[in-house]
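Researcher: We're teaching a course module on how sequence relates to structure. For the next exercise, students receive a sequence and then see the predicted structure as tokens, so they can try to spot secondary structure elements on their own. Here is the exercise chain.
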Amino acid sequence: MGFNCGIVGLPNVGKSTLFNALTATEAAEAANFPFCTKEPNVGRVGVPDPRLEALATIAKSGKIIPTQLEFVDIAGLIRGASKGEGLGNQFLGNIREVDAILHVLRCFESGDVTHVEGSVDPIRDAETVETELMLADLDSLERRLTAAQKRAKGGDKDAKALVSVMERALVALQEGRPARTITVADEERPLLAQLQLLTAKPVLYVCNVEEAAAGSGNAQSARVAAKAAAEGAMAVVVSAAIESDVAQLTDPAEKREFLAALGLSETGLNRVIRAGYQLLDLVTFFTIGPKEARAWTVHRNARAPEAAGVIHTDFERGFIRAETIDYESFVRLGGEQACKDAGKMRQEGKEYVVQDGDIFHFRFNV
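Model: And here is the predicted structure for the students to work with:
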């Protein structure tokens, strides 16, 4: 099961530099001119989780395999993208394919890096991108709504439910609000997803600041944080330049020393990855053994058979039960056998909802 975040923003805000640092590669060419990134670059990164190392130490696992997120570096957008300006159609098509949006905003001044709008204003930049996405969504909904309404009037119950969601989304967009702001019941969420609206996707604002502001941010990133809070969105501060330098260091001790010299306790990328994970509303479960300690990912509220299916489809198809230990008990008691002896291993069935930190051993028969 893959989960991915599309890195978007105006040209020259630091998208490709951030992507390179995230994936510790030079896969995305970084240059000081628009549309440097024409085809989306894709990279997978491990999600930092200290629990996994703790479990591996207790179980004496030979290998540690973290869960992963996929990041997609998408071409820069300009005004008019919704009408095909620049690489607009390609940009919008690429966004439709991702689960969440990481919106990189330039929050630093530099005479060496041009800005497509001529000045630095992250709020304006955010609104430029959001407007283009909303215009594209408006066009999409208006083209499809009439046909859906006809089916609903003809007695199609599915169409009637879909029209209800479409009409609410259309009103929000006409009022200048993204589709993710509408209220939907749990049973309506698949319908909203079916519409593939760009502005229905969750958003994380990534504030790219100068090196001196990497720890606490600056006035521009504070404006973005306020915007995110008002929208119920998330914001993270990073210095793409620092992250790029850190990514070149292979020795963990060197990395810690480099960060400490800058007054930082961890990389901004770790914060971005964790925030992206949270943005997608994911939870982690573990499988632990002498060969490997491994983290896996499912959506919050997933049931045990779905978690089993992440490992192998046969596990889900022939699911019998899940032998389950919570993370705290495993660490506190010192391993699987101690948890069994203390009665902390539970037998969970098909209706069990996966909890973050669960340690599973699946029983199945196919």
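Model: If you want an answer key for the exercise: Residues 22 and 269 are 6 Å apart (CA to CA). Residues 122-153 form the longest helix (32 residues).
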